[in-house]
Design a protein that fits this description.
Layout lengths: L7 H20 L10 H10 L1 H35 L1 H15 L3 H12 L3 H24 L4 H9 L4 H38 L5 H10 L3 H29 L6
Helix pairs in contact: 2-10, 3-4, 3-6, 3-8, 3-9, 3-10, 5-6, 5-8, 6-8, 8-9, 8-10, 9-10
Length: about 250
């Protein structure tokens, strides 16, 4: 019975956030050009729904592309590092160093290489996704105990069998934790890449509406980007429930 009403709690949290937003607007007398009230934003979402949809599609394509490529690279690197300590010692510090470069500083470099195309934006989103997946997957692959490894040796398991039957299942909770982070980070990466230069996209719409002082469109664009990130997060969560069935709820 308790689990059947679990979906109510997020709705209560969302409703309380909207109520707090309205209370701040009314209580502090915030001007509409600074922060519109929730009803105004709701009307703007409906009024500009086709404009938002036209700009949301390229952002979604960039985020999904970056999500798939970045997580694939992160998973492959983690698999390589767990099987070769020497390669890990050589290249893992380089990956960490590369991750320390602010993405807003790296974006112009990638745009110079790939141009103002979707490729550069996918690359930026992929870079943001890669490192969390690499670190979490590596930790998951190494989470097997010494006794489990000894048992696999006694059973004469090959390295491939150890990976597929022991390391990979053990790493799944860690992998999906990384995927949840990447689901939202990929949207951030796509939007940041559009800030540097784009003809379409939610990031471009945010910049344009800010400079035009169209605050209601700005907040509507932010809401659209949040809806995209939440949708991707929700899909990853559903996939986790389907694949990682042995994990306790």
């Amino acid at each position: 019975m308790r689990n059947s009403f679990a979906w109510l709690w997020p709705l209560i949290g969302f409703a309380s956030l909207i109520a707090l937003w309205q209370a701040v607007i009314v209580g502090f007398g915030v001007r509409p050009f600074i922060a519109p009230d929730p009803l105004t934003v709701g009307r703007a979402i409906w009024q500009y729904r086709w404009l938002l949809w036209d700009n949301l599609r390229p952002t979604a394509a960039e985020a999904i592309g970056g999500f798939c490529i970045g997580n694939s690279i992160g998973f492959l690197l983690a698999t390589l590092f767990v099987h070769s300590q020497r390669i890990r010692s050589i290249y893992f510090p380089i990956v960490v160093l590369f991750n320390t470069i602010p993405i807003i500083a790296l974006s112009p470099v990638l745009i110079l290489i790939f141009g103002l195309t979707m490729t550069s934006k996918i690359a930026i989103a992929a870079i943001i996704c890669m490192f969390p997946t690499l670190v979490n997957t590596l930790r998951g692959l190494e989470s097997v105990s010494h006794s489990e490894m000894e048992l696999m040796k006694i059973l004469s398991a090959t390295r491939r069998e150890v990976f597929l039957r022991l390391r990979l299942p053990r790493s799944m909770p860690f992998v999906f934790t990384a995927l949840k982070i990447a689901a939202t980070s990929s949207v951030i990466g796509a939007i940041v890449s559009e800030w540097v230069g784009a003809e379409r996209g939610i990031g471009m719409l945010i910049i344009q509406s800010t400079f035009d002082y169209r605050t209601e469109l700005l907040y509507a664009s932010i809401a659209a980007s949040s809806a995209l990130a939440l949708s991707m997060f929700g899909l990853v969560t559903l996939l986790e429930r389907y694949i990682v069935r042995w994990r306790a709820n």
